[in-house]
């Protein structure tokens, strides 16, 4: 069971220095990696049961005999149980295959180079998100203060909860099929209000139970009033006719993109929370003498973050902690860099971010500059 208590810190809202322009467009990312950006709506290779295995049907409707193509397909390790399998006809397609698993969930097989290039663009995305945070906070505050229960107010409440609790945004299909919940799918019984405190108790993804305490008088008041609306959904809004509508994850992402001016999603909050938490956890350790000691500290830090986010350590490290943080810790540059960057960023009036956030942002920008320099040298 995940159990944690959170008390938010206040933050201002001053302007940030503009980032150097960085390419985040997926089509351009694919091109830079020497790949073609494709879709499974394109014509592709089909799979047909044949004896104990499968045969593959090419674009012309003929069975594929080319050993090289068959070896590429076999290397994708598409599970036999997958249905409606589509396989890219191009060896350099960024998506190599798609299919639907036994629970009818769409699954993807990506080209290895695509994963590499998208990992690199995480630098830019995470930095851009950190720079957008003050803008997001500045917009949600007045929206949260609106009277009644309009759509913007409820969306603002969900976005603030995403930041302050790192709870998943939720998915209606998961709630319906698995009885697992996130913010947008929570029911009234999942939140208990006592004064300025909120206690969330719910079953999340993978059937894990969560107990999360938040001390925030404004949000507690809003959630209490929302719980008085008709219906079981916790996060509902009233339209102009007084009809209730529940908030969905797509509504939250659309609102977030509108106020941030960039295509961020609810998951970016969890990635940022994981990255900052990992930095703070590693900063608590004394300097290490051996690689083994450093790796042990990283394992402990990742475990701490996984408890905060409610993920397994493996998923947490892979998806929610920026790799630059772990790299900086291993190469010994992290502790001094965090201290230096915190001082620099605060001096540069970036106090619209919390000190620890400003320090992590500075570290990521430093690492991005190093990566960019390395790429430039390689191109020469």
From TrEMBL:
EC number(s) recorded for this UniProt protein: 5.6.2.1
GO molecular function: DNA binding; DNA topoisomerase type I (single strand cut, ATP-independent) activity
SUPFAM superfamilies named among the record's database cross-references: DNA breaking-rejoining enzymes, DNA topoisomerase I domain
Keywords: DNA-binding, Isomerase, Topoisomerase
Comp. bias regions, Polar residues: 1-13
Domain DNA topoisomerase IB N-terminal: 53-101
Gene3D superfamilies to which the protein is assigned, alphabetical: 1.10.132.120, DNA topoisomerase I domain, Topoisomerase I, Chain A, domain 3
Domain of life, source organism: Bacteria
Region listing for Disordered, in residue ranges: 1-20
Pfam family, one: Top1B_N_bact
EC top class named in words: isomerase
Catalytic activity: ATP-independent breakage of single-stranded DNA, followed by passage and rejoining
Transmembrane domains' residue ranges: none
Occurrences of domain DNA topoisomerase I catalytic core eukaryotic-type (ranges): 113-344
Family stated for the protein in its record: Belongs to the type IB topoisomerase family.
Protein name: DNA topoisomerase
